[in-house]
Specification:
With 373 residues, this protein is of the alpha/beta class. The chain is 42% helix and 19% strand.
Length: 373
């Protein structure tokens, strides 16, 4: 069985999954070039699976540089030569490629699987997405199977096509690789990093990891952290990530004279060590996979909803975190204080690990894919 995985790029958070897939089936990932100044960036090679890199044409939207029209003109000839049995398509973000791949599949009677989130609650669709909606719905409807990121995604796809071919494919990182990475860190490693960052033994550390983009709404977190800090709580805040709104967030932090908050920039290597020294993960805006990484590291999560829909499957409100609808400063403060009370965050963190072990893990993803293929 030969599986062709068609992606814009090989995102660093997908390498673990593709590696696991390649252990079971003959796999090749067809991908394009990184797009400078965006989140669409290839992980650092070499990769532990077969790949085919293609020439890339891309065009950014004038009003939003993060909206990128992406196309690989050599994709179909490359697929034709390799002759896969099944194609796994990335989803809505790769629509121009998906259209030509759909025509290739129809012509050669190839099976294809649509893999995506479907819709993000509250997200305003661009003109580009609206124009391509009829094509997207048709390709989804004609697919041989749908892999939905989460339960909410499955409900969206069920409005378009037969529910029987829709499978929830939990949008998880490779927890096995992350757990192996975590196991390498000693107590001395953690204490050394805490000392380097100036984290006192009895302080509670709040963590945000993700892109620094306007829709992350970090101002809400800064306001609440400032209020809690002014009450005398021994807390620290770590911000990991980079992006187009980084300067804006830094300026806002300076404006409100935010103390005990560290902007650490983008960290990929050893990022789990930072999760390990943190106590609570906070996501005040859009996001998803960082929540999964927090759970794998045994952290409770305070999360805005809607984020991307996956949080509804990963977080049990009041058990391993809190889901706060359209999070504002007042509500976030209330729930952080509740979590800090009597160190409730410790028990909630243990519940996060249970969710990973029971249903949100790489083994569950592979199990679902085996059933589909």
């Amino acid at each position: 069985m030969k599986i062709a995985i068609v992606q814009r790029v090989i995102f660093h958070y997908r390498t673990g999954l593709f590696h696991e897939i390649s252990k079971i089936w003959t796999t090749r990932v067809f991908h394009g070039d990184s797009v400078s100044g965006s989140k669409v960036v290839n992980a650092q090679p070499p990769y532990p699976f077969d790949t085919h890199k293609l020439f890339t044409y891309c065009k950014r939207a004038k009003n939003n540089p993060q909206q990128i029209l992406f196309f690989n003109p050599g994709l179909v000839p490359a697929l034709w030569r390799w002759n896969p049995d099944i194609l796994l398509l990335e989803g809505s973000n790769n629509m121009l490629n998906n259209i030509v791949v759909y025509l290739y599949c129809r012509l050669l009677k190839k099976k294809y699987i649509w893999w995506g989130i479907g819709t993000v609650p509250g997200r305003k669709e661009s003109i580009y997405r609206k124009i391509l909606t009829p094509f997207r719905r048709h390709i989804i409807k004609k697919s041989d199977a749908i892999l939905a990121y989460c339960t909410l995604s499955a409900e969206y796809f069920a409005k378009i096509t037969n529910r029987k071919k829709i499978h929830v494919f939990p949008n998880s990182l490779n927890n096995v690789e992350i757990e192996h990475d975590i196991a390498q860190y000693t107590a001395e490693d953690k204490e050394s990093l805490r000392a380097e960052l100036g984290l006192e033994p009895d302080c509670v550390t709040l963590l945000y990891v993700g892109a620094l983009e306007p829709n992350k709404r970090l101002e809400v977190l800064f306001d609440v952290f400032n209020t809690l800090h002014s009450k005398g709580l021994k807390i620290k805040l770590l911000i990991i990530g980079s992006g187009s709104a980084e300067e804006r967030f830094r300026t806002y932090a300076e404006k409100i004279e935010l103390q005990d908050c560290l902007f650490l920039g983008k960290i990929l290597t050893k990022v789990n060590l930072y999760f390990q020294i943190a106590d609570i993960f906070v996501l005040p805006g859009r996001g998803g996979l960082a929540v999964n990484q927090a759970l794998i590291n045994g952290l409770p999560v305070v999360c805005n909803t809607p984020a991307d829909g996956t949080e509804l499957d990963m977080i049990s409100h009041g058990k391993n975190g809190y889901l706060l609808e359209d999070m504002n400063a007042e509500v976030l403060q209330e729930h952080l204080e509740k979590m800090l009370s009597k160190q409730k965050y410790l028990e909630m963190g243990r519940e996060s690990r249970k969710i990973v072990e029971q249903r949100y893990n790489i083994n569950e993803m592979i199990r679902v894919l085996e059933n589909v293929v």
